[in-house]
């Protein structure tokens, strides 16, 4: 199974937690199509933890869907999602129990993979709670990978061990298609900022076939829901989405799609940002400016296909101010006779810059440009 660009979709956990149901998933599928999210590339609809009964079937050993939450079973729900042109995702855990204390897949990997295939599953998020201390973490992900490869269906393998065991150094070798490199996000500026800044040294561990997952997006939660916390404002959601895009991170929406505002819908379907995230070369961004006197004011640059560049100015601090960008730092010297023609992806403003620029970016805000090298 080839995953050439970061996966995009929706996951139930951030907003709904255990409060999931057949009706919720169907309504979300309808909204993904109606609002144009499917056409924008959001194709996976993933049910997270709390979908099953508390214990396995004593006769078959299988995990059983909760009959109250999912009265028609998972196959019927999967069929509905597929009829909408979307892909269906589910959740399990490498431990004996899931993080919310439902049956995990430890030592049941091959049975569970076959069960998920019977449901018509296209995506499996695989968590890391309640792992026996004697069990080897990397081996557990190899085990589920083998189970998925032999289940008779192509299933995207989303490894979620929260950055444990130096996961970035070995996860690609397991066959996983994306992997969590951080702890859980909550809907607050501090959580989003800390997660983003923690991954600046790990940007190179993301490439076609296996992407660094910095957790589901909280856009549109406004402090409500399962991981609601303090909430964010629209400027902070803008910065979150721009960072996830320039990081080549999977884009898994976590807010309630059914009530998403027009402004946030416009944000998450911004063609230029999605172009940056879904660029076929999937090259990592690199840090072109890091201000020691203002830690958190940074410039990130990402090489794109077709000789384009993405340049992002991010102010992660509490005060607005200038963020210097020396073109020397990306290889465009003053003597090169070259400049950058830059188009801002939110405003459409265009400019041509040689040697240096020093824009003002407000606190918690960002500015992102698509650029081409031109003769000065």
* Order of the strands making up the biggest sheet: 7-6-5-4-3-2-1-8
**Class by SSE composition:** alpha/beta
Write down how many β-strands occur, each being a DSSP E stretch of 2 or more residues. Answer: 18
List low-pLDDT spans.
none
CATH level 4 superfamily of the largest domain: Aldolase class I
Give Rg in angstroms.
21 Å
Describe the sheet with the most strands.
8 strands, parallel
Query: Per the principal axes of the C-alpha atoms, what is the gross shape?
Result: elongated
Order of helices and strands: EHHHEHEHEHEEHEHEHHEEEEEEEEEE
**How much of the residues is beta strand, in percent?**
15-25%
Termini gap:
45 Å
| Tally of separate domains | 2
Which CATH class of the largest domain? Alpha Beta
Helicity range of the residues? Answer: 10-25%
Arithmetic mean of pLDDT: 97
Question: Can you characterise this structure?
Answer:
- There is one protein chain.
- The chain is an alpha/beta fold.
- The protein has two domains: 8-277, TIM Barrel (Alpha-Beta Barrel); 286-375, Golgi alpha-mannosidase II (Immunoglobulin-like), CATH 2.60.40.
- Helices cover 25% and strands 22% of the residues.
- The chain contains ten helices and 18 strands.
- Strands 7-6-5-4-3-2-1-8 form an eight-stranded parallel beta sheet. Strands 9-10-11-18-14-15 form a six-stranded antiparallel beta sheet, covered by helices on one side. The protein has a two-stranded antiparallel ribbon with strand order 12-17.
- Helix 5 crosses helix 6 (137-149), helix 8 (234-246) packs parallel to helix 9 (262-268) and helix 8 (234-246) runs parallel beside helix 10 (271-277).
- It is elongated, with a radius of gyration of 21 Å.
């Amino acid at each position: 199974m080839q995953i050439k660009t970061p996966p995009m979709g929706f996951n139930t956990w951030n907003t709904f937690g255990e409060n999931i149901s057949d009706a919720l998933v169907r309504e979300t599928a309808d909204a993904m199509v109606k609002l144009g999210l499917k056409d924008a590339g959001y194709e996976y609809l993933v049910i997270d933890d709390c979908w099953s009964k508390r214990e396995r079937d004593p006769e078959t050993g299988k995990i059983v869907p909760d009959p109250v939450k999912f009265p028609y079973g998972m196959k019927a729900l999967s069929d509905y999602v597929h009829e909408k042109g979307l892909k269906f995702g589910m959740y399990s855990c490498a431990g004996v129990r899931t993080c919310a204390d439902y049956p995990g897949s430890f030592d049941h990997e091959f049975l569970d993979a076959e069960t998920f295939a019977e449901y018509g599953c296209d995506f499996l998020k695989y968590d890391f709670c309640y792992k026996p201390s004697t069990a080897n973490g990397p081996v557990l992900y190899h085990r589920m990978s083998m189970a998925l490869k032999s289940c008779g269906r192509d299933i995207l393998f989303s490894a979620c061990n929260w950055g444990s065991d130096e996961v970035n150094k070995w996860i690609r070798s397991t066959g996983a298609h994306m992997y969590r490199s951080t702890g859980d996000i909550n809907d607050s500026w501090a959580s989003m900022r800390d997660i983003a800044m923690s991954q600046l040294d790990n940007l190179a561990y993301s490439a076609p076939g296996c992407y660094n997952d910095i957790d589901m997006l909280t856009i549109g939660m406004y402090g409500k829901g399962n991981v609601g916390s303090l909430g964010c404002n629209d400027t902070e959601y803008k910065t979150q989405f721009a960072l996830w895009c320039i990081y080549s991170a999977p884009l898994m929406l976590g807010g309630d799609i059914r009530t998403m505002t027009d402004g946030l819908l416009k944000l998450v379907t911004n063609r230029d940002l999605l172009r940056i995230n879904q660029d076929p070369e999937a090259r990592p961004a690199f840090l072109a400016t890091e201000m020691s006197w203002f830690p958190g004011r940074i410039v990130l640059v990402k090489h794109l296909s077709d000789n384009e560049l993405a340049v992002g100015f991010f102010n992660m601090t509490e005060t607005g101010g200038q963020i210097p960008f020396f073109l020397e730092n990306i290889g465009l010297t003053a003597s090169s006779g070259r400049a950058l023609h830059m188009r801002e992806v939110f405003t459409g403003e265009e400019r041509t810059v040689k040697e240096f620029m020093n824009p003002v970016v407000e606190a918690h805000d960002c500015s992102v440009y698509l650029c081409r090298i031109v003769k000065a």
